[in-house]
Amino acid sequence: MSLSFDPTTLHTDLFIDGAWRKATRGATFAVENPATNEIIAQVADGGPEDAALAIEAAGRAQAAWGKSTPRERADILRRAFDLVIANTDRLAAIMTAEMGKPLAEAKGEVAYGADMLRWFSEEAVRVGGDSTTSVDGNTRILISKEPVGPSVLVTPWNFPLAMGARKIAPAVAAGCTMVFKPAELTPLTSLALVDIFQQAGLPDGVLNVVTTASAAPVVENWTSSGIARKISFTGSTGVGKILLRQAAENVMRSSMELGGNAPFIVLADADIEKAVDGAMKAKMRNMGEACTAANRFFVHRSVLAEFSEKFSKKMSELRVGDGALDGTEVGPLIEQKGLDKVQSLVADAVSKGARVLTGGTRPEGPGYFYTPTVLTDVPLDADLMSTEIFGPVAAITPFDSEDEVLRVANDTDWGLVGYVFTENTGKAMRFSAELEVGMIGINTGLVSNPIAPFGGIKQSGLGREGGKIGIEEFLEYKYTAIAI
């Protein structure tokens, strides 16, 4: 295996007020390669003292950064985009080493994250306002937009570069300073991205990073500081609810991109080849470790056999292995806890009557690998129908009517994304209107796009990331009345 980075060159310290520094207490935590169980690096384990230094630095930097010009912010983002593209191989190799995804997927994530930087470099110079005259004609009303202020950014482990870019880019574009806590399992990619922002000329104190193995004390320090005015979090619904309660104490603006339970619906008139191709993308991107991953497959009984056979065949042909090796299509899960969860969910479904069409086993040897798995005849009371699987397991349940499948698909607390396959435009529009989700893929298994507003409804979150709306999450409106 040949890595495109030298482990001794990795940044492993905190980044506060423009300087790399050890944790105040000198503690570190290990970052593991999930394919080999080898330790890649020891990373600074920050605590509340470090969190306080970070938020204070962001507070001091806000006034000057908020007055920076849109062009200055746009140019920094554009330089960061160029640097990310130039460092694609290195960033992808770091990501594969600490997260496990195949190099080809890691490079795809680098490109997606870079596109976020480019998109918001263009949005930075397009933040507008409005003006009008009062109905009595005596007042000129001016509406302007200003940065929200110091923002708390908390990202997950499954897309360490893309999620960092998707939060940092709009904050930079809007003129907000930041404190950033990357995921404990994958901090190295995030720190490499931070280094790129420093190289791109981001002023000291604008972006401050605290890595930690104990997230709660660090983030709570920020939300209770009185300095932070905004929090943007991607992760589980349970943690999101805790952060919303904390944010409420200081009435902080909140963006939450939380869990999912995505339905993948194949109607009777679907093009089965398209549906199978879409299923592979919707299920197996990132080894199924994505909030957008198809979680529940509902297939019309008339096409159940054909879809299941073709889908199972493609799943069984996937090559499982270390993501750094040529030809690997499915890497390991991120940690033992995730592997245990997947095994438990499959065992529960089988005990309740589900049949295994392919997979359902764990390969021998090191690493947290699980064979791509397809289950059919999965009953609605199986745990994996109400739990985000976060692994390479597809659970198929037949249905007979459109009303039935809509009812079952919407019978969940989550509403992030849904997928529908049909060749009938009317049916496509009906499901688009009636599925209770924030995003819908019609005849496609991939919905993420930098120019589109990403987010969900119900307990899948608040707010949107990306698109023209993404920067609005970091802006406040101000209205000025001028007598005339």
Describe the structure.
By secondary structure, this protein is α/β, with parallel strands linked by helices. Helix content is 37%, strand content 21%. It is built from 13 helices and 22 strands. It has helices at residues 48-66, 70-86, 88-99, 103-123, 160-174, 187-199, 215-223, 237-249, 272-284, 304-316, 336-351, 402-410, 425-434; strands at 14-16, 19-21, 28-32, 39-44, 130-133, 139-147, 151-154, 178-181, 207-209, 230-234, 253-257, 262-266, 294-300, 355-358, 373-376, 393-399, 414-415, 417-421, 439-442, 457-458, 461-462, 475-483. A seven-stranded mixed sheet has the order 14-15-16-13-12-18-19, with helices on both faces. A six-stranded mixed sheet has the order 9-8-7-10-11-21, sandwiched between helices. Strand 7 (151-154), helix 5 and strand 8 (178-181) form a beta-alpha-beta unit. Helix 2 packs antiparallel against helix 5 (160-174) and helix 3 crosses helix 4. The longest helix is centred in the first third of the chain and has 21 residues, at 103-123. The chain is globular, with a radius of gyration of 23 Å. It starts with 13 loop residues before the first strand and ends with a strand. 53% of the residues are buried. The model has no long low-confidence stretch (mean pLDDT 97).
